[in-house]
Design goal:
repeat, TPR-like_helical_dom_sf, TPR_rpt, TPR domain protein, mainly alpha, TPR repeat
């Protein structure tokens, strides 16, 4: 049976290996974006320190080192985790149904029923998101270790072996270290032990109490880490229209709808959608029926724990695994299919056992005619699920196919249209992106929604294609619409800031620096400390306007908010240079050249400072000579470099050579028709055997 389960699961996911990185995958699995991926020592240290999701991160590192990098290797790793979970589920259910309390009823068919449960769960299309969407290995691996925790407890109960109990502690630690959905593992282990094995609480604590204490301890750290999330929750974010802050009560009511829908998908998995963009239930009529249904299920679970504990434990597992994401803690998106990865097993188990009980209750005559009905039904459902799973695997081949599937399923899904258009735009298919965005904008406008995000995206496309008038109009439309809103939530402020940044960048590109600076500064005031690039760009425009003190303030803010690789330290150095603060300018240029040694303009500015600055603290002839030689090697004997070289020769006391080289530079300048005054002034100094030194920025560059 285990071999057949493996073969069928391989068939169901046989087309899942050809997909690439989708959406968040590259951010965590592409070595260029996640260099820590290959750092085994760092990942092991994170596990030892008990950091949230560190075991999940370690899994990807081991995948990279043992199987290889790239999407195909990670797909293999995800499938192996899923297959292992299915096999553990099979043996766990088999041993439970063969336990002493079920021996008379299920012992003879325990393996067969467990096989059906594991098979239906393994090929169920609702589980594909947890397998084929690479980054959701956190969910599937947490489920694997969660089931292994219960499995080890069951083995410990059956054999009364302390080693299995110790293994349960280890598995529990790995589960909560993979993803926080496993924080309920100790509770479920205790409930399972009491419901099926222990005759009373005293026996449970006497035999395995130490194991449960250990399991609680290893989950304590993650629970503490999650405390801020439980206290604050999050704002509901959408990439297009935005939404108001979600209260805990509103989220809880919304999740009654979501859980009801999850159950419906478990029983009839169509249609499946990557992104449901589930609306928040704010009216009593929105959640009354589903809330009543879920409350009824909770009451039924509590009653079952009292009267039929094994059934109650299954219901408890369903709700406990969903609780972190589907209760009262607001999360950015209320509904995602991967959250049903492990809870799905609970529904499948109840359906299989319930179906078997109904079949047993048929009359003897009917049993003869219906003898093969369970086999036929199981085979039919498995074949159907395999086909649906193969189809869902194709959806996850690329980000474009993901969003196209959502658009085809839900034509009014604004976020899907928006994200698909961004993919097409980045891929150079601008016309197709514009068509999708325009259609989406029309639908939003008809429904009275916000079109600001669409206008921002269309403005960025217009700016990229050189249609500055259209781009300006789009950005201004977004700004005007958002200004009319009475309520200002985080999403509204984000869109407003991005519209101002787009308009500011557009004006800066056109040389309209006054308007650019005003728009960019407005963006920084809408969301302080969120947009260092806006501070930096505003500083550049202010510098062009001659407002050096204001430029210094904006660029200094950009530097404080970003790392050394960003260009704002460079731009701030130029401001220092223009202010006559030559020592600070030289320090800034030196810092920048460590990040970008091929920046020729900054190299030239620094060479002039080291060669001719009036201050002894700034001047450094050896460095100036080295910088100049590197520039000549790169660019050849150009006019500015000849002038600079002459200045260095004079500073070294080689006045005749300096004058000769300066005369050559003057001759080249005459041919090009430029200003000769500064070089002629230096020539007179060299002829009178004096070096050129100055504290005036315009004389040094």
């Amino acid at each position: 049976m285990a071999l057949l389960l493996t073969i069928v699961t391989c068939i169901a996911y046989g087309n899942s290996y050809s997909g690439g990185y989708v959406l968040d995958d590259a951010r965590y699995l592409e070595l260029d974006q996640a260099p820590d991926l290959a750092n085994l020592r760092s990942r092991l240290g994170a596990v030892a320190a008990g950091r949230v999701r560190s075991v999940g991160n370690l899994s990807f590192t081991l995948n990279y080192l043992l199987i290889g990098g790239g999407p195909q290797a990670f797909h293999v790793g995800n499938f192996l985790v899923h297959l292992a979970t299915a096999l553990v589920l099979f043996d766990l259910v088999r041993r439970l149904l063969a336990a002493p309390c079920f021996q008379e009823r299920y012992a003879a068919v325990a393996a067969k029923l467990a096989f059906v449960v594991a098979m239906l769960w393994a090929v169920h299309p609702l589980g594909t998101m947890g397998v084929t969407y690479l980054i959701q290995r956190y969910e599937s691996q947490a489920a694997l270790f969660y089931l292994l925790t219960l499995y080890c407890i069951v083995r410990s109960c059956l054999a009364n072996d302390w080693r299995w109990a110790a293994a349960a502690i280890a598995m529990c630690g790995l589960a909560v270290g993979t993803k926080e959905v496993a924080v309920s593992a100790p509770l479920l282990a205790i409930a399972l032990d009491r419901a099926i094995f222990a005759a009373g609480w005293r026996e449970l604590l006497r035999k395995r109490g130490w194991a449960y204490v250990g399991m609680v301890i290893v989950t304590a750290y993650v629970t503490v880490k999650l405390q801020p999330a439980f206290e604050e929750g999050t704002t509901l974010h959408t990439s297009v229209s935005g939404a108001d802050q979600v209260t805990r009560w509103e989220y809880l009511c919304t999740e009654s709808q979501v859980i009801t829908y999850y159950i419906r998908l478990a029983l009839f998995p169509y249609p499946l959608c990557f992104d449901y963009e589930w609306p928040i239930a704010r009216q009593f009529s929105d959640y009354f029926a589903t809330g009543l249904f879920v409350v009824g299920l909770l009451i039924a679970t509590a009653y079952a724990l009292w009267r039929w504990p094994p059934i109650g434990v299954v219901g408890l597992l369903f709700f406990c695994v969903l609780a972190p994401s589907s209760s009262f803690v607001p999360i950015a998106d209320p509904a995602f299919e991967y959250r049903m990865y492990l809870p799905l097993a609970c529904i499948v188990l109840l359906c299989v056992i319930g179906g078997y009980e109904l079949w047993l209750r048929s009359s003897d005559a009917a049993q003869q005619s219906l003898r093969y009905l369970p086999i036929v039904l199981t085979a039919s459902v498995v074949i159907l699920f395999v086909g649906m799973t193969l189809q869902r695997n194709r959806v996850y081949r690329s980000a474009e196919s993901v969003w196209r599937s959502v658009v085809e399923l839900r034509p009014d899904h604004v976020r899907a249209h928006h994200n698909l258009a961004k993919i097409l735009k980045d891929d150079g298919r601008t016309a197709a992106a514009i068509t999708i965005l325009e259609n989406s904008r029309a639908r939003i406008a008809v429904s009275g929604g916000s079109t600001a995000a669409i206008d921002i995206e269309l403005g960025e496309i217009a700016a990229r294609t050189g249609d500055f008038r259209e781009a300006q109009q789009r950005f201004q439309n977004a700004i005007d619409e958002l200004a009319e809103r009475k309520s200002r939530n985080s999403e509204t402020l984000r869109l407003d800031a991005e519209a101002h940044i787009g308009l500011g960048a557009l004006w800066q590109q056109q040389g309209k620096h006054a308007g650019a600076a005003a728009a960019l500064i407005a963006a920084t005031q809408l969301r302080p400390d969120r947009y260092p690039q806006a501070h930096g760009m505003a500083g550049v425009s202010l510098r062009e306007l001659g407002k050096l003190d204001d430029a210094e303030q904006q660029l200094g803010k950009a530097v404080s908010l970003t790392g050394p690789s960003q260009p704002w330290r460079r731009e701030l150095g130029i401001v220092y240079f223009q202010q006559g603060r030559l020592r600070e300018a030289a320090d800034a240029f030196e810092d920048w050249r460590k990040q970008s040694p091929d920046d020729l303009e900054i190299t030239l500015r620094l060479a002039w400072l080291r060669a001719a600055a009036a201050s002894d603290e700034v001047r450094n002839l050896a460095e100036a000579k080295q910088l100049t030689e590197s520039l000549i090697a790169r660019l050849g004997p150009q006019l500015l470099l000849l002038d600079l070289a002459a200045t260095i020769l004079a500073a070294e006391g080689k006045y005749a050579e300096a004058a000769q080289l300066c005369e050559k530079a003057i001759a080249l300048q005459r041919q090009q028709g430029g200003d000769l005054l500064s070089m002629e002034t230096r020539l007179q100094l060299f002829r009178s055997q004096r070096p050129f030194q100055s504290a005036q920025p315009d004389e040094l560059y």
